[in-house]
Specification:
heterodimer; A: 28 strands; B: mainly beta; 6-stranded antiparallel beta sheet
Chain lengths: ~300, ~290
């Protein structure tokens, strides 16, 4: 926390000016009274939003309830709305109006396992959302024209003035050949892109496990497990990094179809990168036959 | 009394002639009323002897009126009849019951974690076996008899919710949430039709627990966090059926279709409309079966 005036401070997580008299940041819910937990390697732990902390947006607010599988309880007022995937609805008041949000590319979304329908909720009234895994709610306040890339299935809700799009991340590889060729998408087939177009907005993600944030300097690189990516600034570049550890002369790839290798997501700055501590491990270890642009390391 | 459970409530000794201490309310000099189950406890107690709720922790109530179920501290112990129950662990808690002579508890057999070799087991006679099997419910409800120890747990992170049931109380619980109940509670079940979000459109089963002459205790496993709300007469709330955990039988539950179609097959979206009076409990983690 950096105190600039007697009554305000700069939140170290969302970097916005906040009222020092509150127990938590009104923009992102990060607790005020915690010391920065930064690892020796430079990852800053995103502190869990405290039980019952409130986040303000416009005339509406969001209260985070629970610690194991937190739910986001929106109190929608005025003309404000939020949108979300329909499977994350936990409860709502009868006064809340829910309607489908038009989406493009429905077939591609179904193929990618993404929700086909997003719902938009208008107040007045309360609406609560939650996901189905232990973890944390991560609140990202977006300033006007600010954008953020989010890995698929991490999105919980966004305010109506945040535009939503989805793109191919351009990170893939194939294994096998001929009729047995298989395509792999370590990041998923699509990433969600959120862009605050109509003034400041709020984006809520659900992060399984704990989440950690890091600011990469220009040209600074880091390799992460692809499925551990939570979000990143658009300025952060990414591509595949294929690493083949030294096997010490032991040819344990007894079958030509298999290889001893590690698939990384190589990211470079400038910008923020956030990871979650729970991720899916790659099951395939078949030999890679083709891939998107990648760096290669054979030890 | 609502003032007692607001997060930012100030001392209201002047109001009721009592003082608050965490989740408990001190009446007079030497008794504390548990705010979860309303049982009386000695002033020096750290947790309620009837339900295990911590008496030295603040109640957490959201602006919308949901109260978090008390998070039982590791190794909390409480009593029922001539038996005791100790809740162990916090991520996936275990309920360990030390049954007194003449006491028994019943449970679904797959929640059994361990038992003393000498603790006798029997089966509860149940009707509607075929219906239960078709509904994915266990056909047999097991009974453990005292004296002896037996322990129970479910298969995912969450919390144990302790509900002491006073005589003539009736409680409806979603399928597969019931952990263990004491012998003085009678058990039946019913099917709720039309909850398409649950069991792939085939409806859902509710376990019904009723106490007769003697107080009993019912333990549930809520996935994720558990919240409870007390609905006034006629007050309504819409709940995703997968998030529903329990309700007083006085609360009416109806299926309400929303004006939204979801998924490739354009399924209708259904929510459970709960109408008071009575308590409704929800869990924050559940599997939604029909995501599009």
């Amino acid at each position: 926390m950096t105190v600039t005036e007697s009554s305000t401070y700069t939140c170290r997580f969302c970097r916005l000016q906040c009222d020092a008299g509150r127990a938590s940041c009104s923009h992102c819910g990060a607790p005020v009274d915690v010391r920065a937990a930064v690892s020796d390697s430079g990852w800053q732990e995103q502190p869990a939003i405290k039980d019952m902390a409130r986040i303000q947006f416009g005339q509406s607010s969001c209260q985070i309830e629970g610690t194991c599988v937190p739910s986001a309880d929106f109190n929608l007022g005025g003309e404000e709305s939020v949108y979300f995937s329909h499977h994350s609805v936990l409860w709502c008041e009868p006064s809340v109006q829910m309607s489908p949000m038009p989406m493009k590319g429905g077939w591609n979304r179904v193929r990618a396992g993404l929700p086909l329908v997003m719902l938009q909720a208008h107040g007045p009234g309360h609406l609560a959302l939650s996901e189905d895994a232990p973890g944390e709610v991560v609140a990202i306040p977006l300033q006007h024209q600010q954008a953020v890339w989010v890995r698929e299935h991490r999105f919980l809700a966004a305010t109506g003035n945040v535009a939503y799009d989805w793109q191919q991340p351009g990170v893939w590889f194939t294994t096998g050949g001929g009729n047995e060729q298989e395509s792999h998408f370590p990041l998923g087939m699509f990433v969600d892109v959120f862009h605050a177009e109509g003034g400041p907005g709020l984006l809520l993600l659900h992060s399984p496990g704990n989440s950690f944030v890091r600011d990469l300097g220009p040209g600074e690189t880091i390799c992460i497990q692809p499925t551990s990516l939570l979000y990143k600034d658009p300025s952060v570049g990414m591509q595949l990094h294929l690493e083949y550890p030294n096997q010490g002369g032991v040819m344990w790839n007894y079958n030509r179809g298999y290889s001893y290798r590690q698939v990384w997501l190589r990211m470079w700055g400038p910008g923020r990168v956030a990871v979650q501590s729970v991720f899916e491990r790659e099951e395939s270890s078949e030999m890679i036959t083709n891939h998107s642009p990648a760096t290669l390391m054979r030890w | 009394m609502q003032l007692l459970i607001l997060l930012d409530s100030r001392p209201i000794d002047w109001f009721y002639g009592m003082t608050t201490r965490g989740a408990g309310t001190v009446r007079g000099m030497d008794r504390i009323e548990c705010q979860w189950c309303k049982a009386q406890n000695d002033a020096g107690d750290k947790s309620c002897g009837t339900c295990g709720a911590p008496l030295d922790a603040r109640n957490l109530v959201s602006d919308s009126g949901w109260r978090e179920a008390p998070r039982l501290k590791d190794m909390t112990e409480f009593r029922f009849s001539s038996s005791t129950c100790q809740v162990e662990g916090e991520l996936v808690p275990v309920a360990e019951v030390n049954l007194g002579s003449g006491d028994s508890v019943f449970f679904e057999h797959h929640v059994l974690l361990w038992k003393d070799e000498s603790t006798p087991l029997s089966a509860l006679s149940m009707g509607g076996g075929m219906k239960r099997m078709l509904g994915g419910m266990p056909m047999v409800i097991s009974v453990a008899h005292g004296p002896g120890r037996v322990a129970f747990s479910r298969d995912a992170s969450g919390e144990v919710v302790v509900l002491p049931l006073h005589p003539t109380m009736e409680m409806d619980v979603r399928e597969h949430a019931f952990l263990v109940a004491s012998h003085s509670i009678s058990y039946s079940f019913e099917r709720i039709k039309g909850m398409t979000n649950v069991l792939h459109g085939e409806g859902m089963y509710l376990d019904r627990f009723v106490t007769s002459g003697e107080q009993g205790i019912l333990l549930l496993h809520g996935y994720g966090n558990v919240f409870e709300r007390n609905l006034a007469a006629g007050e309504k709330i819409l709940v995703e059926p997968g998030g529903f955990l329990y309700k007083d039988s006085s609360v009416q539950m109806n299926t309400v279709q929303q004006n939204v179609k979801t998924g490739l097959m354009r399924h209708g979206m259904y929510l459970a409309e709960m109408t008071g009076p009575g308590r409704v409990g929800i869990q924050s983690m559940y599997v939604h079966h029909h995501s599009g």
